[in-house]
Amino acid sequence: MADATELAPPTVRRSWWTRLPVVSQLRQSIGLQRGMLIAGLVLAAIFVLAAVFAPLLAPYGYSQLRDAAGTFGAQQPPSAEHLLGTTVGGYDVLSRVIWGSRTALLVIVVAVTASILVGVLLGLISGYFGGWLDRVLVMIADAIYAFPSLLLAIVLAIVISGGQSSMWGGIFAAALSITVIFIPQYLRVTRSEVIRIKSEAFVESARVIGAGHVRIMSRHVLRNSTRTLPLILTLNASEAILTLAGLGFLGFGIEPTAAAEWGYDLNKSLSDVTAGIWWTSIFPGLAIVLVVLGLTLVGESLNDLADPRLRKRAAGPEPVEDLGVELPAGQQEGEQR
């Protein structure tokens, strides 16, 4: 009699890198959904790499007006010395676009990090304790939605630095306004998950053995209530870039001598468009569009893959792998029918 363990299917162990968040979703996606996710990841990766390695990639500084050969000159067309031309202020367009990615990335990091820390903490407290505190926090979160993020950014820019922002002044003005708008989103998502999880059996067991509220919230509830936050993060990152660009376009952004910012460059190139000078506006605008498009594609794709109904509908039934085990003759005939 054959050993029962010989007929057991072999255990397939996945590599550690296949279990990473983005890699796991990429393996689950197929067809158009996979194409959208790959396109978004490529655009997002180019944006992050340009921001991190801006000093190596940019041919000039973001506020540089001259080199050893002399001044650059204003509104110079694309050439071998300046691949994307120069702006009305005499800055190199390519360098401003590359350095602008670093400013955008800093705003995303500051705004999203602060939003997650505050929103998750308030959502955890609101959902776990409930009562009057829950009602007050939810009411405040609903009221915040009435404030336009761009208008709040303008007000904060004026309060912080009088509308003429330094690098970090402009970054914090945009980041603080975005943080205030994003906090209710993280609060509501975390609160709904906490309300569901706090009634689970393992939470009740922790209460029975005498665990305190802080230990239950930090060790049991928080860990299981933040799984959907990466999906919201990618969508909020694109909105953060749009708010920063809008702030600079309206003239409340960062000064060109402090840092490069795409919205400011678009504002200064408005008069160039009517004069047939296209390179000063098209490249900063294209950078905004591509980065927002990439982050949005990643967020929407991850959101679809997180929904089991959409994932199964897109992928269809999973194929059965051949494990090398022969079936009885009668069962083989039934499978063929």
Automatic annotation (TrEMBL):
The chain crosses the membrane at residues 36-58, 104-129, 136-160, 166-187, 229-254, 277-299. Residues 316-337 are annotated as: Disordered. The keyword Transmembrane applies. InterPro entries: BP-dependent_transpt_permease, MetI-like, MetI-like_sf, OppC_N. It holds the Pfam family BPD_transp_1. Coiled coil: none annotated. It is found in: Cell membrane. Residues 101-299 form the ABC transmembrane type-1 domain. It comes from the Bacteria. Keywords: Cell membrane, Membrane, Transmembrane, Transmembrane helix, Transport. Its main location: membrane. Belongs to the binding-protein-dependent transport system permease family. This is ABC transporter permease. It comes from Actinotalea lenta.
